[in-house]
């Protein structure tokens, strides 16, 4: 099976090489960390682990990195002598990790899943254990870990209802891949059952919950909130509509909805935050075409006048904190079929959260927020305008919905402790050897 997988991997690489080279030339996002992903590892990246083997945590992008931070903190408390190596697949994820935790000893890009890349990385870093957040099933990498007797654990794992049929078609292969995992800690009983149906050993599958519910509560004081408003040249009590982690096809809908909302709420400011930094310039052009006054976040600190109607958030790592000053929040990747993004980053500040119908990647969280009245699904532009108008018109309704959103976090926390109960004996056993 692995011969077939690797043959397909190399064939796809060869066939799409010209396209990949073109993407490298025109889009910086594809160049970020390329050499490291191919196995070019600097001495500085491995020198911290020359004497003690690290615990390797993998979090694919920003949302997973934020969910991993409390886990990293607990791992460091439980095993203070073990260095923590964190890998990610995106530049934004890497920047977030480097800036956000004092407990991480090194942040790297995760390797491409070629056999030689996996062997090289694992040989260089010699991890004591490997911990992957959510469903990161890289066949060659996991196989290499198994061959070296290095335990691999999936935490906060999930198999969405949308992706499950695709996985099931290749059950004959994924059964072998899953056999390389020491334990699978899943978000829900439905996720656990799907994984077992894909061939995971039932004894190795546990339900521990979603780590995103255990994210550290951000410390945002009144002074910090006032500073954020000053930095954005916002007036006290000025209503703010934040559309975070948006994707292509969503910005036009949001800008049109915002124009309608301005008719009734003249002081409303829109903060528009595209998911990928490579689209900042593209979205700036979209805003310009509307004719609405706007500013880029990076240019605001020197601006003497107000920010205009729209602020384009062209920075990395600032969005989660900015949710604290929002009146209402829309989370992107949900009006287009992407699967949605982390709703809890806004809910933690007791903000009502709006999202579209495409929430397959966060279905459990979206459902819980809706059930409690803290999340509102909108089908389209008209729905977004209607629900935003209701919330902006009624402060009591806004605050009640925000409190219900926060209640979801309070009632579902505990995944961190359950995950650590699984991880501690595995790591202790490895350290003893």
Structure in words:
- There is one protein chain.
- This protein is of the alpha/beta class.
- The mean pLDDT is 91.
- It is built from 21 helices and 14 strands.
- It has 2 domains: 22-209 and 414-432, 3-Deoxy-D-manno-octulosonic-acid transferase, N-terminal domain (Rossmann fold, 3-Layer(aba) Sandwich), CATH 3.40.50; 222-412, Glycogen Phosphorylase B (Rossmann fold, 3-Layer(aba) Sandwich), CATH 3.40.50.
- The strands form 2 sheets. The protein has a 7-stranded parallel sheet with strand order 3-2-1-4-5-6-7, with helices on both faces. Strands 10-11-9-8-12-13-14 form a 7-stranded parallel sheet.
- The chain is globular.
Layout of helices and strands, plus pairs?
Elements: H1 2-15, H2 17-26, H3 34-37, H4 43-47, E1 55-58, H5 62-78, E2 84-88, H6 91-100, E3 106-109, H7 115-125, E4 129-133, H8 139-147, E5 152-157, H9 164-169, H10 171-178, E6 183-186, H11 189-197, E7 205-207, H12 222-231, E8 240-246, H13 251-264, E9 269-274, H14 280-290, E10 294-296, H15 297-300, E11 310-312, H16 319-322, E12 328-331, H17 344-347, E13 353-355, H18 363-372, E14 375-377, H19 381-393, H20 395-412, H21 415-432
Parallel strand pairs: 1-2, 1-4, 2-3, 4-5, 5-6, 6-7, 8-9, 8-12, 9-11, 10-11, 12-13, 13-14
Helix pairs in contact: 5-6, 5-21, 7-8, 13-19, 18-20
**What ranges have pLDDT less than 50 throughout 5 or more consecutive residues?**
none
Number of helices: 21
Could you give me the name of the CATH homologous superfamily of the largest domain?
3-Deoxy-D-manno-octulosonic-acid transferase, N-terminal domain
What is the class of the largest domain in the CATH system? Alpha Beta
CATH architecture of the largest domain: 3-Layer(aba) Sandwich
Report the major sheet.
7 strands, parallel
The CATH topology assignment of the largest domain is: Rossmann fold
Q: Report the principal-axis shape.
A: globular
- Based on CA atoms alone, the radius of gyration comes out at 22 Å
Residue share in β-strands? 5-15%
Biggest β-sheet: strands ordered side by side in the sheet: 3-2-1-4-5-6-7
Structural class: alpha/beta
Question: What's the assembly state of these chains?
Answer: single chain
Distance between the termini: 32 Å
Q: Helical residue percent?
A: 40-55%
- Please indicate the count of domains: 2
What is the total tally of β strands?
14
pLDDT averaged over residues: 91
């Amino acid at each position: 099976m692995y011969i077939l997988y690797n043959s397909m991997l190399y064939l796809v690489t060869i066939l799409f090489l010209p396209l990949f080279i073109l993407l490298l030339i025109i889009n910086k996002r594809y160049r970020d960390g390329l050499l490291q992903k191919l196995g070019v590892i600097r001495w500085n990246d491995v020198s911290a682990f020359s004497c003690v083997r690290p615990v390797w945590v993998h979090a694919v992008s920003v949302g997973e990195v934020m969910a991993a931070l409390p886990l990293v903190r607990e791992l460091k408390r439980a095993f203070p002598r073990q260095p923590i190596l964190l890998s990610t697949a995106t530049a934004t994820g890497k920047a977030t990790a480097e800036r956000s935790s004092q407990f991480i000893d090194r942040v790297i890009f995760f390797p491409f899943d070629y056999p030689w890349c996996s062997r090289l990385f694992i040989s260089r870093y010699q991890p004591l254990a490997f911990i992957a957040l959510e469903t990161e099933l890289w066949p060659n990498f996991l196989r290499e870990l198994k061959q070296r007797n290095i335990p691999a654990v999936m935490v906060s794992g999930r198999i969405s209802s949308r992706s499950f049929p695709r996985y099931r078609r290749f059950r004959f292969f994924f059964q072998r891949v899953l056999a390389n995992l020491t334990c699978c800690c899943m978000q829900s009983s439905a996720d656990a059952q799907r994984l077992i149906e894909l061939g995971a050993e039932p004894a190795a599958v546990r339900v521990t919950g979603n780590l995103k519910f255990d994210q550290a509560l951000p410390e945002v004081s009144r002074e910090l909130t006032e500073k954020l408003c000053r930095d954005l040249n916002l007036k006290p009590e000025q209503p703010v509509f934040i559309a975070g982690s948006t994707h292509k096809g969503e910005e036009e809908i949001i800008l049109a909805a915002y124009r309608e909302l301005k008719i009734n709420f003249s002081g409303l400011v829109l903060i528009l935050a595209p998911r990928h930094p490579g689209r900042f310039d593209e979205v700036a052009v979209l805003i310009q075409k509307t004719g609405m006054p706007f500013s880029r976040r990076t240019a605001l600190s020197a601006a003497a006048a107000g920010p205009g109607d729209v602020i384009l958030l062209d920075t990395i790592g600032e969005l989660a904190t900015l949710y604290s000053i929002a009146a209402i929040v829309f989370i992107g990747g949900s009006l287009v079929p992407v699967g949605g993004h982390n709703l809890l980053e806004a809910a933690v500040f007791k903000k009502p959260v709006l999202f579209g119908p495409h929430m397959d990647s966060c279905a459990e969280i979206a459902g819980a927020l809706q059930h409690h009245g803290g999340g509102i699904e909108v089908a389209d532009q008209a729905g977004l305008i209607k629900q935003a108008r209701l919330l902006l018109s009624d402060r009591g309704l806004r605050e009640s919905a925000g409190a219900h959103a926060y209640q979801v976090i309070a009632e579902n926390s505990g995944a961190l402790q359950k995950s650590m109960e699984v991880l501690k004996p595995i790591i202790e056993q490895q350290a003893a050897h």
